[in-house]
Amino acid sequence: MSSMLITANEADISAVFLEKVAENGGPAVECSFRARPGFNVGEVAFQLGGGGHPPASGCTIQGTIEEVAPRVVELLKQARRKGLATSQPAS
Q: What domains sit in the chain, N to C, each tagged with a CATH number?
């Protein structure tokens, strides 16, 4: 699903959140990220305890989607800003 989201012309980074039950019986959110060239979602996944590569990565985070999504979205926004900053020509 996240691979399809990155095909949108407006999307530099896409994310899919899937709520699930963790092994300990508590809530968890499985996150899957995709990015266009020049944007690094691998760093985001690593910060959240997951892994992957710059264009495709993911993680699973303990908590509800209401707890997890705002934190993840903020990190993805930072990754997008960083990608935009590095892709701009020097002045």
A: 2-83 (3.10.310.30)
